[in-house]
Write the structure tokens for this entry.
Amino acid sequence: MKINKDLIGNIVVFLAERCKPLYQTKLLKLLYLIDEEATKRTGAPITWLSYNVWQFGPVSEDVYFSKLEGYNKLSEFVRFENVRDNSFIIKPITKFNDAEFSELDMEIINEVVEKYGSKTTQQLIDITHAKGSLWDETKKRANIQFSKNNKTSDVTLNFLNLIEDDGLKKTVYYAAMENVELASTLI
């Protein structure tokens, strides 16, 4: 998250301003759906967050654990307010800044908010868990079995699976990934 911290922080601020109240689980789903849509359309995700296959869907651990005291990697942008037992609302502490985003990025983000922003958390879980979704296919391929005691996995979703039949988008993905990796070595 180091390399895209300002970008991710600003997306979270944007979502918190437009999807009130924004609970943490809904935030996780919207971030994932933004990256999924961006990958399908352009060949590369916007945030480059890593999403694991958890029982309730794709989860970025960086964002998930930001609710814990001392672990908020987005503390310059938002706070996670505990409103009841382990239920957190995201509150922006700064204004949204679009300097990190292209016009296409903003178009994708706005479309995702328009399409999914008013959905309930359960509806978003149903969408990300749909039969044939990247989460569903990855869970099957890795033979992940969730239970009362096992709600997480360390299996990461691979966005390349969304574009495996599109050579041009795969080229875009690898070039963008190379840029992200190169930028991270410069920090």
User: Anything to note?
Assistant: The mean pLDDT is 94. Residues 5-185 form one domain. Residues 24-42 form the longest helix (19 residues).
